[in-house]
Write a structure and sequence with these properties.
This protein is an alpha+beta fold. The protein is 53% helix and 9% strand.
């Protein structure tokens, strides 16, 4: 049985008021305290690090889903007082309301024995991390007497310690939020991160990217997400090339971005035709215009990182890793008196974004450098065209491990 039930009344009231605003009465959805208690319980199970619960999870589209049995919810929460004969149906209706309102995502698996799995949506996760306001440690004896930043201390609520999400740090919180963003929302966040130092050059203050995500989601109901992100790439490249703070301001201010989107979409089309760029190559162009050594800013808290990109397989990669891999190749080739092609970095980045998974592209090159049988072919690294011809015609190895090959090359470079 749960020892404590935490209800974030203010956060939920504000969320529900906003959700139902401007909706006809028959389309409105409101939650009662039982609904919220159920949500809080599911949220705790979805975020706990308890080993037994972690083992019950499955991965769907790169997102973790947690199996939660209706029987377990009822047993651990007797004060829900669900006494109807059809308890499962009553509970199921309440959970479906949480799904419909956008707090939970649900996945039904017949392969796992007809089990239902849940994960928190971005909004659901934001709600459980809201600060507890209006709670007095003197008058509310149910809480730990010591409060930190409005969040209760870790409580041993059950044998699973399912309240452990309260102790997660900011980095873990961000990782969870980031993992639940859509493909193009991740691209937007990375794009803005790469522009941070350019914003600072023109004193364009961007306290949080949260508003940008909200605006982007709103615009995506009217336009294709690919078109939106391409339009922002185009404006960013133009602004950096022309050293124009006013053009960057359109991106830095989410309200300006929303108001200007029609113009940006037209501008992007003309710009891409003039520069002979497509949707993939404009992204590559942006990464090199924006440079590296950027910031990631979400909740008004800044974490330093090097610029990132998303490869063809949908994996997020760090440009710093690309720099390191190219450096390794360059240092090894120097030992044979070979100078690596000057445009190797832009070639590898563009290829990873447009054509092939990053790890596979780099692993192929590490394989050549590590294998004595290919010693006579090292000259291909001097010229991109020779390299392309070689890998298209003469290289047929299928199973190669990026991490292992990188480690082997690092040992060779360090030994020399």
């Amino acid at each position: 049985m749960r020892e404590f039930i935490t209800i974030r009344q203010k956060a939920f009231y504000e969320f529900l008021s906003d959700y139902n605003k401007d909706k006809p009465k028959e389309q409105q959805i409101w939650l009662d305290l039982k609904d919220i208690a159920i949500f809080e319980y599911i949220a705790q199970l979805c975020t706990t690090e308890h080993e037994k619960i972690k083992q019950s999870r499955i991965i769907i589209d790169d997102t973790e889903y947690t199996h939660i049995a209706y029987k377990k919810i009822i047993e651990d929460n007797p004060l829900l007082y669900i006494k109807a004969k059809n308890k499962a149906q009553v509970l199921g209706n309440k959970i479906n309301k949480l799904v419909k309102i956008g707090l939970l995502n649900k996945y039904f698996s017949q392969e796992k024995g007809s089990k239902t799995y849940y994960t928190l949506s971005l909004k659901g996760y934001t709600l459980i991390t809201e600060k507890l306001e209006g709670v007095s440690s003197k008058s509310d004896r149910g809480y730990h007497s010591e409060m930190r930043g409005g969040i209760t201390e870790k409580l041993d609520n059950s044998k699973y310690n399912i309240d452990s999400y309260n102790s997660k740090n900011k980095i873990e919180r961000f990782k969870y939020i980031y993992a639940n963003l859509s493909f193009f929302e991740k691209k937007l966040l990375i794009l803005l991160g790469n522009l941070q130092k350019h914003f600072e050059t023109y004193n364009l203050k961007v306290n949080t990217y949260k508003k940008h995500l909200e605006i982007f989601r709103g615009l995506s109901s009217k336009y294709e997400e690919q078109d939106l992100i391409t339009a922002i790439y185009a404006r960013a490249i133009k602004a950096i090339k022309e050293t124009s703070g006013s053009q960057l301001k359109t991106i830095a201010n989410p309200n300006f971005l929303k108001a200007s989107m029609e113009d940006l979409l037209l501008e992007a089309k003309e710009f891409m035709e003039y520069e002979e760029l497509d949707e993939d190559s404009i992204e590559t162009e942006f990464y090199f215009m924006a440079d590296v050594g950027t910031y990631l800013n979400f909740y008004g808290e800044i974490d330093r990182y090097s610029g990132e990109f998303i490869d063809k397989a949908g994996d997020t990669k760090n440009i710093e890793t690309l720099e390191e891999d190219v450096f390794l190749m360059r240092e090894y080739l120097k030992q044979s008196g070979i100078e690596i092609a000057s445009n190797i970095k832009s070639f590898l980045l563009g290829n990873a974004i447009e054509n092939v998974k990053y790890d596979l592209i780099i692993a192929k090159r590490f394989y050549i450098l590590n294998n004595e049988n290919y010693k006579d072919y090292l000259y291909i690294f001097e010229d991109i065209d020779k390299m392309l011809e070689f890998f298209n015609k003469k290289f047929s190895v299928k199973e190669i491990n990026y991490e292992e090959l990188k480690q082997q090359l690092m040992e060779k470079v360090s030994i020399k």
